[in-house]
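One chain shown below:
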Amino acid sequence: MGINLLPHAVRFLTELGLADDLEKIGIPTAELIYVNKFGQEIWQEDRGLNAIYRWPQYSIHRGRLQMPLLRAVEDTLGKDAVLTASPKIFRSVG
């Protein structure tokens, strides 16, 4: 399943130090196009850097995004902050 990370989300993730990861695992989204069943364009809109945002928009598989996010959480909160194979995923730190 894929998602689109809009420029404001990419900005936030960049501030967390994930810009290189996003560039490696995401596909920069340049435009959004709607077409009819005959392939005729109905509507087009530039996205990300093509729409003159300071940050790109990425199309990315949500599963590929999980590991960089996990690393960022562990780097920020510590490895003990995330529990796996448990109904209680996060526990309070401190």
Strands lie at 2-5, 27-28, 31-35, 41-46, 58-61.
